[in-house]
Amino acid sequence: MESSKLQTGSRGLRLFFHRLRRQGVPYFGFWMAVIMILIGVAAPIITPYDPTLMVSEIKFEPPSFQHPFGTDDLGRDVLTRTIYGARISLWVATIALSIAVILGVPLGLISGYFGRYVDAAIMRFADIMLAFPDVLLALLIIVIIGRGATNVGIAIGIAWIPHYARLMRGSVLSVKGQEYVEAARAIGQTSPSILRRVILPNSIAPVVVMATMTISHGILAEAALSFLGLGTMPPDPSWGLMMNTGRLYLRTASWIAIFPGIFCAITVLGLALFGDGLNDVMNPKLRREG
Amino acid sequence: MTIKYGLDKPLFVQYMTWLGLVVRGDLGHSVYGPAVLSLIAQRLPATLYLAIAVMLVAVAIGIPLGVLAAVKRNTWIDRLAVSISMLGTTIPYFFTAIILILVFSLYLNVLPSSGYASPLQNPIDSLRHLILPAVSIGALYTGTFSRITRGSMMETLQAGHIEFLHLKGLPDRQAIFPHAVKNAMIPILTVICLASGQLLGGIVIIEQIFQWPGIGNLLLFSIFRRDYPLVQGVTLVYALLFFVINLVTDLLYAFLNPKIRYD
Amino acid sequence: MVQALLEVKDLRTHFFTERGVLKAVDGVSFSVGEKETFGLVGESGCGKTVTSLSIMRRVPYPGKITGGEIRFMGENLLEKTDLEMRRIRGKEIAYIMQDPLTALDPVFRIGMQLDETVAAHLGLGSGEARERTLSLLDKVGIPSAKERVKDYQHQFSGGMRQRIVISIALSCNPKLLIADEPTTNLDVTIQAQILGLIKQMNTEFGTSMILITHHLGLVAETVDRVGVMYAGDLVELADTKSLFNDTKHPYTLGLLKCIPRKEYRGVRLPTIGGTLPNLVDPPMGCKFHSRCPFVTDECLREKPRLEKVGREHEVACHHH
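Structure tokens for the assembled complex are given below, as produced in the milestone run.
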């Protein structure tokens, strides 16, 4: 129990960073992702042009000093659009994460806590959802609720609910059987407080790890669905959408597709590297033989 | 038209009617005319061809890579394998596709950027068309399998019964290796089956990019044209495919794990 | 004097960890003769398992054997190549692990696990190997061996599994058997059975044995000679009778007192006060001095060496 007890507050944060720093590559990944996020947030401030401003005279300009990433098929500055693309990805990821966590975690808690019929029912639903691969599930949900960046976020969020539910349920079940729960009850602690004090702190670590996966998945799915034309609607600058347009002009104006693609890849890569190392950071087990 | 399609009846009745027809093999007709079933049947082989090719490649490269990495821990081979699998799993496959098209089709002009040729009629040309789409998404799964295999092997090699084999004085290649591999395979196979399911999803995008005439492309097509009977039909086929994959996974798992088999 | 089967001389095995060099085995010497049973006793962490693994030369990372000699049938095992050691393991020196559940491979049939050992070391063909397997299983008391060879490890009870492990260990007629806590994980009722089986097999095959255990009471009935280990050192070495009737070392005395007895009914069990010393930075002098009721100045300064106090009795203590 000792090592897995999560430190909260600023002391916990400092400890977290100390451990993260020791892990070279994930630390690097963390900053990759953070930089991307910051770029997205600061988009209006740092971009030289309006992302939707179409200037037909300068269509298809290759990268130059005025337009470092070139211009696209409608004369818009690719650099600006790429940076704004980060915003959209961030938006989608946020929505997806919020929905998945806000709905999934309580479901899992309820499922694990009450057991029997409630548990069985919720888990059946989860199984059905989990039987479908992510892309298809999101696709189907989009078909039902319509397109748009926000809807992509909603679709991904819904698709991840069963994952979080499963995770929390597992946490609850593993704690339920422990002796200290009986001990706590014996001295009069009520269930909600046990839930709050024991289960929640111990579940934070795996939930955070899962969150990084949800975020990167949200970004990828937004790009994929927009690529297919089912996500972000033009003229909004989504990486996926830009890659799709760029595909048509790959021979003549490859920069339209490449730069958003690179940004997307870097973000996802950073998140993945970070997420991989996150597990080791949050649960520092004694290292076994090398 | 509403009456012709029975759309005036309540939703539940519509659904039941549809189910009834499905069981009899009649998936209805596309809004534009042709029977759904025949449309699907036409295109299913192409998707399966691509999917199987991808899986074969991923297994043939990914698993041995993972085993090698686990056996030669902490050497350059291990690090290389891990880097390769990391790259494969994180770079979005549609981006990889675009880059590959750029390099091999547009600059080098050695491979076609889209289209399909039947393997039965034109094997070499078929292969040429297969390479780019297969590699684009194959990289993802090669990376995944390599990582899983490495992890599973590493864990297995630490196990007590493997150490016992060493204490029994048995040789590495003849005894330790087969024992370790068989033990490690169980989780790996479950992942392979899960990946197959996921692959069917990602293939939709690849089919789009490369104009591959499969059911993924068909699905998108039908969605955009609001051809709901077709959408329903394709979704059903997908669901069936997943069901089969899950079933095979469960059976395979039971077969490999003696505990389940004999209980 | 007849040369002993196994002679361990001043064995040192250290673990090179992040926190420093852990001296798990710090100069241990003892010998085991032919057809003799030797008990290696001590609490958890005293180095008995590491000693046995050193003999097998399967010390896990980050451990390394840093000094001493291990003479088996006259030859120094520490000078052997990997290939030579492989031929010795399982064939000349066999090992029984603590937990039979981890020793047996869950995805292979148990018959096959025996076959492979016998085939590898004795060069038997599959038919002959299977014959030998069947007769071995019979010997250790597995009923209907012919049907049960096809079963998997989880289809047997704990005691049965250990029997199978024993049969594997003895399958190639080893000269020496090292049994590391072979009964600790079994039901109390089965423990005696298994120990009896081991003894019986040893007698039948003429095998010597090193029995590792933390339970002094166990060795009283089973072994010819005993070595008591503490924090990486061998502190007392004697034949069983002398050890129990004429105990010399304060640690051994403490251990004996801790064994639950009739007289202790209703009274708190005596314990040895204090805790194990730090093996990375052991104290000067005798490692037991902080817990010893007879401690004097000399004990704090100089580490005592094993010295003969009787015909078959050696003690590492300044007071003898």
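The two ends of chain A are 24 Å apart (CA to CA). The interface with chain C takes residues 289-290 of chain A (CB under 8 Å). Further analysis is deferred to the final report.
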